[in-house]
Amino acid sequence: MHTQSIPAGGKWGFLVMLAIAGCTATQPQDQSPQAQAPMEQNQAQAEENVLLKEWTGPYGGVPAFDKMDLAYLKPAMEKGMALHLAEIEAIAQNPNPPTFENTIVAFEEAGEPLGRAFTYYSIWSSNVSSPEFRKVQAELAPKISEYRSKITQNEALYQRIKAVYEASQKNPLPADQQRVAELIYEDFEMDGAGLDAQAKERYAAINKELSSLYTKFSNNVLADEEGYVVYLTKEQLSGLPESFVKAAAKAATDRGEEGKYAVTNTRSSMDQFLTYSDERALREKVWNNYYSRGDNADANDNNKVIARILELRNERVKLLGFDNYAEWRLQDRMAQTPERAMELMNAVWPAALARVKEEVKDMQAIADASGEKINIAPWDYRYYAEKVRQQKYDLDSDEVKQYLQLDKLTQALFFTAGELFNYQFEPVTAGTVPVFHEDVKVWEVTDKTSGELVGLWYLDPFARQGKRSGAWASPYRSHTTYKGKKTVLASNNSNFIKPAPGEPVLVSWDDATTFFHEFGHALHFLSSNVKYPTLNSGVRDYTEFHSQLLERWLSTDRVINQFLVHHETGKPIPAELVAKIKKASTFNQGFSTTEYLASALMDMKFHTADPANMDVDKFERETLAALNMPKEIVMRHRSPHFGHVFSGEGYATGYYGYMWADVLTSDAAEAFEEAPGGFYDKEVAARLREYLFAPRNSMDPAEAYRKFRGRDAKIDALMRDRGFPVPDQKTNQ
After folding, report:
1. pLDDT digit string (tens) for 663-705?
2. Rounded Cα distance, 295 and 272, in Å
3. Pick from 122, 189, 246, 483: CA 20 to 30 A from residue 378's CA?
4. Cross-strand pairs, 427
5. For the segment 434-471, what is each residue's pLDDT rounded down to a tens digit?
6. Contact 91, 184 (CB under 8 A)
7. Is the pLDDT at 20 greater than 70, yes or no?
8. What sections of 131-174 are H helices per DSSP?
């Protein structure tokens, strides 16, 4: 399952990301000590505000997560923005002619206190949110947008950056300096720095309104996630695995419903229930709750919010001379144009639809044979797919889970990192490094050969109120060398269901794959070898490639044989069960590919259509009908809760990027498969580190891939991986 990750970037890229995103809100956490802090705070406290202070302690300084107090947040953000703007103005008004050092490097250095405050902000937003935080967030969102506009629309600053850029086109700088000068200049151009005064004013006003709409969209979805819980009685547990039942009992108890079993309105809970529950009416209810988030014709309905977002995005890019939002957004991505992104998706879509027909036929046959007088509906798909899996491959997903323990999988991550990157992970003694929640654990990462410190890895594994759903990776501090080497601080965040005391954490194969996926992002942060912060920024349809590639090591023999052991007996997973898993690797690809591609196609259709007077619900229905969307499947993310696209701009017209990255992933995996040492081949692993992970955005992604593979990626490997027919004529991506 694809998951959303916070993109890694330089300092500037990180601030831009949060500003554009409207600093997405998350679920409340009423019990956190931060949530109990009084909101009234004298502005004078910002002078000594802990959230702005330089990080102290070991490892080059670490965030003071144990000192987080919500009362400090708003003053810290406001003071940090003021300090940064003052630094920006000093650069802009420098009387000396613009140079790389006094303009680009100075720009890279500016805003460090605010960067620290944003790190804490992101923790509140994603990991330990509360109703009190969301009030602060709503107040800050438009202020952050205004602050960002004051930077991108600073004419004197823009002219200095432009002068350095234009001079570099005549007399090129060293490669890393050339790249950072180009990236910063292009960012300013894309954000309207070259517009006239009237257009700039409107551009800033649009961004300000969008920042509030993104926050509203997110809060509406969260309200529906929190507000809909299905409680079961003991008589309604038929078919559900014991591990799910225990977790559901705990979830109900935590909500004051002792003796009942709670199916929460999150993907991890919904997915398991729809896969195993024998209660069809309850499956339908849980399905409807989940897929109608943000679409209930009430105060939390997002359809009009989406319509306004699309109108504003379209108006904004028209100011820059683009025909539509997608054309503007994709100009600095690997795809470059909406047409190229659509070409890839349209190449895969027919094969996915054909596979869905086969899958539905198999499921319907089982339903008919069991005497069920039904036609397969969306809430039946996972349930009967699991029965087909057992019938065709004799593979029981719950049996596989008994060998997938979270602690062992964590060790598998470390083993993989050791083999590919020569990293060693050692747990940091509790209390040495501050954490924001007792569940968070920290490891020290070193080079196995030299013993040199690489960074720290934080893991926040469990779901809880106040933590956004899904799985993601975040850099608290990225690697740079222009002011001395910075120790990387990387994190992974998951939403595994916390077990009852003394019980193991058992996860599904999909969740284990996601765990490897997100760790791939963390390795990308840790292995960075760039000089300037901006070179840590990511290209959306490229950065997912690195994490998707790391998923492949979960199913390698060396990981399976060492780390997939039964939680009770300690015995390795049987070879025959492994064979079944591998044989079933292309099973249900019709479902997974179609639900994903439907969302990606809808994203692109929304942003290439005329948004004037758009009825969002009608547009979604008519577009899917034109695509011949199977009635048995729904989009992975229906529009009213499509947070990737409408809670910010990170994935807007970029959701196709997972498929684009999948082409690279499949092609790169075959490079390992063809090597003498397979997935642990030292030579291919060295190229992986040198060309794909270490450079980050210091070179063009297409060039980096060619250096690794010796050629461009082809779609053929992707089609083979999914069990789809390979096109007759080999197509370069």
Report:
1. 999 999 999 999 999 999 999 999 999 999 999 999 999 999 9
2. 23
3. 246
4. 443
5. 999 999 999 999 999 999 999 999 999 998 888 887 89
6. no
7. no
8. 131-152, 155-170
Pairing of strands 453-462, 488-496: parallel
Instruction: Please give the Cα distance from 663 to 21 (Å, whole number).
Output: 28
Q: Please indicate whether residue 518 is annotated as part of the active site.
A: yes
Instruction: Return phi, psi of residue 261, to 5°.
Output: -135, 125
- Report the distance separating Cα 640 and Cα 220, nearest Å: 9
Structure tokens at 76: 């810290």
Residue bearing tokens 């891939």: 705
- Tokens describing residue 178: 């050339």
DSSP labels, 582-648 = HHTTTTTHHHHHHHHHHHHHHHHHHTTS--TT--HHHHHHHHHHHTT--TT---SS-GGG-HHHHSS
**What is residue 443's three-state secondary structure?**
strand
Tens digits of residue pLDDT in 359-408: 999 999 999 999 999 999 999 999 999 999 999 999 888 899 999 999 99
Supply the mean pLDDT for the chain: 90
State the pLDDT at residue 445.
Answer: 98
The model's pTM is: 0.86
Local structure of residue 501 (DSSP, 8 states): T
CA–CA separation, 289 and 225 (whole Å): 8
E strand map for 336-462: 423-427, 441-447, 453-462
Residue 254, pLDDT above cutoff 50: yes
Please give the structure tokens belonging to residue 483: 């002011």
Given this model, what pLDDT does residue 243 score? 85
Point out the catalytic residue in the list 108, 189, 518, 544.
Answer: 518
Q: Could you tell me the domains of the chain?
A: 11-213 (1.10.1370.40), 228-291 (no CATH)
